[in-house]
Structure formats: structure tokens, C-alpha cells
Design brief:
The protein is α/β, with parallel strands linked by helices and 494 residues long. Helices cover 35% and strands 18% of the residues. It is globular. Bound molecules: flavin-adenine dinucleotide.
């Protein structure tokens, strides 16, 4: 096979994985990244001796990273150390009562016993039924391209048999009766930008997938994974351009993409282009409308986008080892469906919230100064299609969350903070170039999944490819790493 010149736009996990895979196949690959560091949503905020992972913290399906290093003839262990987390999550109800789970079924059944013993049997049935979903949705389909409608038709009978027309919440509710436990076994679509009340039940497999391979943390933080992948890419001869925002994808007279023009005006030619930038943004802002038949501005505007996030990164000068918190915590508010309606449907900023609280120093003290504690707290909020002015709403929203944490989980929190930074939907829009400031790109609903999602090979141009959250199979590290594998196969084997 001839060595091609390939440009990758963006260095999120999808972009990095694709760049490494293509370089390992002998292509000349260059990454152009808008920001001053690699990683995209996994950007590391370094403040006063703390290293805060900006985005992903939960590593599921670690072998997908191993495969990337193997493709380059290397061992992942020589670059990155994964350690298992136990429990996987500790989930608190609105009264602060905790339910923990890990990969041990007996442990989970003991936990369920404390909430609603009658649900133990249903939980076992739920797990057994999600195996079939996992075998189909993950093992068989996650790394397959859905380029033609026929690909979709072929899997339709299985999707119907697996009840994919049900939402994850409804699916879990068939087996589990206790309302809080239903929430514990249905929140997973939120991890990839979906509403548990309308994400198809295929995403119920996330809970199964966690059990299959465990939940891991990378020592040094997820930033260490980004750094390891960046190093590997350069060892393969790849070139990285930081602070290099792509303004336009150039199209030649044969209707093939031929290169990029950066914001500084410079032009770089390529045989193939892989965009890891937001799909909506790539089509809407980088490719002139006259070349787009399917992804017109109107089509892009009509697609459904995931929620956004409000994230506060904070470090304290004291530790909170007796707080009852685990490494990964979910703190549910008094309302579940109603709050999700506010976020996804009504698009209003509610006064209550449900939070994910990350406390990585429990596993890895190296990311904070000695004797200190590092955290981030994340609250799902509507995307910028809502009428919320974050320039005025952000401060009070931050204060409400920090006061809540101080009153309920972290005594004297605000007097002990020595490092802090927050991001809101304007960050996702401005810094990461996400349409409507969505945190996970296109929302995972049935009508935007598989063939219905923007394809990994563009429907507009034969030599433009997409990797990352907005293309098939979707957001989350397993999804975006799988998209890179699909793009590699499409580019190298066709
Ligand atoms: C706060 C948060 C927590 C999360 N937690 C988890 C988790 O624990 N586990 C998990 O599996 N998933 C998690 N996710 C989801 C996961 O992080 C994302 O789905 C995934 O990282 C997205 O990767 P990507 O390949 O789509 O690229 P992105 O990370 O979206 O990166 C795209 C890159 O393209 C660059 N770019 C954009 N426009 C241009 C341009 N014009 N020119 C050049 N470069 C450009 C951007 O600067 C960015 O670096 C989380 C997401 C968020 C936001």
C-alpha cells in the first residue's frame, strides 16, 4: 500500500487513536490541534501544583488502549499504568444514603438487600439480559462501519428482539422496582450525553461492560494517557501542530478534499483528511455550503445535541478521608425524571442538581501537593439552545454547588480551597468548538445511532473521515476509540 499524507484535525482521544493507527500503517500523519495541548475534552488544567483532568476520568474497556499500542508494535504498560477502582461508583440518594457497586455480583446483591431485597432476583435477570445486548451492541457492532442503509437493515431484527425501542430507564424498570435502584441501573446514558428516558436500551450494556472489564484509573490521571499516546505518535514519526486552528477544509475540482487552511492563512495539502473536530462544526464552518448536499446548515441545526456540563475543578489544603466518599461518586438530587426533563426537553436551569464528584487523590496522591485533595464536580445542564446567560448564571450556579457540597459532604470546603477553575457551556462552544456547547456532541437517540449517525466516511466526500463523539458509534472513550479503528480500516483496507 502506498504511503499517503493524512491530516488529522483535532487531538481528542478519537484523533490521537486514529493518528497513531494510521502512522503505524506507514502513512505520513500530521495532527492539527486548535488548543495549546493535546487531549480535547481530556485537557489537563494545571493549577497551583494540582493536575485536574478536564474530562474523562472513568476508563472502561482498557483493552481498546492496549490494541492501539499493539498496532504500533509496543506495549501499553510501557507508557501508561491502569489501576482498577473499587467500588466502581458510590451513588448517594438525596438524603445522603449510599449504594456502592463494583464487578462482584455477590457484593451488589448485598447492597441491593439493604435497599429492596425483592429486587435481587430482578437484578440478576437484568444482568443476564444485558449480556445479549452487549454481545450484539458492543462485541459485534461497535467497530463496524454503518455506511449503507443495508447495514442498518441487517441488524434491525436483532435490535427489535433486544427491545432497543425501549429507553434504558424503562428497560431497567422491567426488572427492578425500587425507584432509587432504577436510577442506579439507568443513569449510564448520561455518561455519553444521553437522557436515560430516551436513550435506546442498547446503552443498558454499559453496566454489563463495566462488569466485564472493570473500571480503571490511569496513574497520573487521564492526562497521562494523552501524554503516552502523544509520545507514541511522535515515535512513529507523526507531527503535531498545536495552536493550529483549522478554518477551512479545501475541496478540489473532483470534489475530493485536498487539504486545510489554518486560521493563520497557511495551507497544508493531504491525500485524506480525518476530522476529530465536532462533526456539526466541521460541516457547518469548515466546508462551504455549496459542497454539502446532506449536511446542509439546516440539517445540522435540526439534529439533536447532547446536554452540556458545568464542571468545577477544585483543590483543598486539607484532606477528606473520613467523608464517606469514593473515587467516583454520583450524588442524585430529589428529582430524577423531572430534572432530566428540565435539562433535555424544557432546557431550563433548575435550582436542584444531580452531581458526579471525582476524588482522584484517593487513588493517586501524585496529582496534588502532599496532604492536599483534588476534586472535580460536574453537573449536567442544558446546552446553549437554552435561554441561559452563562456570563451571569455561572457564578451563582458555582456558589450553589459548592455550598451544597460544604453542607453535606465536605465540611469547611470553601475555607480550604487553594486552587479552583470552572467551565460552563460557553467553554465547550468557544474552546472546544462544539456546536451549541454540547459536551458529548450528537445526542444518542435511536434516530441518531449507527447508520443514522454521521458516518465515519463522510457522505459528502470519499476521502474525508470522521472520528470522535459525533460519529458512529458515539461519545465516551470506548466509542471514540472504536471510531478510530473503523476509520483506519476504511482508509487502509478499501
Ligand atoms: C467533563 C466530561 C467528563 C467525561 N467523562 C468521561 C469518562 O469518565 N469516561 C468516558 O469514557 N468518557 C467520558 N466523557 C466523554 C469523553 O470524554 C468524550 O466523548 C471523548 O473524550 C471525546 O473525544 P473526541 O475524540 O470526540 O474528541 P474531543 O475531546 O472532543 O476533541 C476534539 C478536538 O478537536 C479540536 N478542534 C476543534 N475544532 C478544531 C479546529 N477547527 N482546528 C483544530 N482543532 C480543532 C478541539 O480543540 C479538541 O482538542 C466525558 C466528557 C466530558 C466533557
Amino acid at each position: 500500500m502506498n504511503s499517503k499524507k493524512i491530516i488529522v484535525i483535532g487531538s481528542g482521544f478519537g484523533g490521537l487513536a486514529a493518528a497513531i493507527r494510521l502512522a503505524a500503517r506507514g502513512h505520513q500523519v500530521e495532527i492539527f490541534e486548535k488548543l495549546d495541548k493535546l487531549g480535547g475534552r481530556a485537557y489537563v488544567h494545571e493549577i497551583n501544583g494540582f493536575k485536574f483532568d478536564g474530562g474523562p476520568t472513568v476508563i472502561t474497556v482498557p483493552f481498546l488502549f492496549d490494541e492501539i499500542f499493539e498496532a504500533a508494535g509496543k506495549r501499553r504498560e510501557d507508557y501508561i499504568t491502569f489501576v482498577p477502582c473499587d467500588p466502581f461508583y458510590r451513588i448517594f440518594n438525596h438524603e445522603g444514603r449510599a449504594f456502592s457497586y463494583n464487578g462482584d455480583e455477590q457484593f451488589i446483591l448485598q447492597q441491593i438487600e439493604q435497599w429492596n431485597p425483592a429486587d435481587k432476583e430482578g437484578y440478576v435477570k437484568f444482568m443476564n439480559s444485558t449480556k445479549a445486548i452487549f454481545d450484539k451492541g458492543f462485541v459485534e457492532l461497535a467497530d463496524q462501519p454503518f455506511l449503507t442503509f443495508w447495514d442498518m437493515l441487517k441488524v434491525a431484527p436483532d435490535l427489535i428482539k433486544l427491545q432497543s425501542y425501549l429507553s434504558v430507564y424503562r428497560y431497567a424498570s422491567q426488572f427492578v422496582q425500587d425507584e432509587f435502584l432504577r436510577q442506579c441501573f439507568s443513569f449510564h446514558p448520561l455518561l455519553i450525553g444521553g437522557n436515560p428516558f430516551d436513550a435506546p436500551s442498547i446503552y443498558a450494556m454499559i453496566h454489563y461492560l463495566e462488569r466485564e472489564w472493570g473500571i480503571h484509573y490511569a496513574l497520573g490521571g487521564t492526562g497521562a494517557v494523552v501524554a503516552g499516546m502523544g509520545r507514541l505518535f511522535e515515535e512513529l514519526g507523526g507531527r503535531i501542530h498545536l495552536n493550529a486552528e483549522v478554518d477551512e477544509i479545501l475541496v478540489d475540482e473532483n470534489k475530493r478534499v485536498s487539504g486545510i487552511r489554518l486560521a493563520d492563512g497557511s495551507v497544508h495539502q493531504a491525500d485524506d483528511i480525518v476530522s476529530n473536530a465536532d462533526v456539526a462544526l466541521t460541516y457547518r464552518h469548515m466546508i462551504p455550503g455549496q459542497y454539502r448536499r446532506k449536511y446542509t446548515d439546516r440539517k445540522v441545526e435540526r439534529m439533536k445535541y447532547s446536554m452540556s456540563l458545568f464542571v468545577i475543578y477544585f483543590g483543598t489544603k486539607r484532606q477528606y478521608r473520613d467523608s464517606g466518599l469514593a473515587h467516583h461518586n454520583i450524588i442524585l438530587g430529589p428529582r430524577y425524571k423531572e430534572l432530566l426533563d428540565d435539562i433535555f426537553e424544557k432546557k431550563v436551569l433548575a435550582e436542584d442538581f444531580s452531581l458526579y464528584l471525582h476524588m482522584p487523590t484517593l487513588t493517586d496522591p501524585s496529582i496534588a501537593p502532599e496532604g492536599h485533595e483534588a476534586f472535580y464536580v460536574l453537573s449536567p445542564v442544558p446546552h446553549l439552545g437554552a435561554e441561559i446567560d452563562w456570563t451571569t448564571a455561572a457564578g451563582p450556579y458555582r456558589d450553589a454547588i459548592m455550598q451544597f457540597l460544604e453542607d453535606n459532604y465536605l465540611p469547611d470546603l470553601q475555607a480550604n480551597i487553594v486552587a479552583e477553575h470552572y467551565v460552563d457551556p460557553l467553554y465547550f462552544q468557544g474552546a472546544l468548538n462544539s456546536y451549541l456547547g454540547s459536551a458529548f456532541s450528537l445526542q444518542p437517540v435511536l434516530t441518531q445511532s449507527a447508520w443514522f449517525r454521521p458516518h465515519n466516511r463522510s457522505e459528502e466526500f470519499q476521502n474525508l473521515y470522521f472520528v470522535g463523539a459525533g460519529t458512529h458509534p458515539g461519545a465516551g472513550l470506548p466509542g471514540v476509540l472504536s471510531s478510530a479503528k473503523i476509520a483506519e480500516n476504511l482508509i487502509c483496507d478499501n
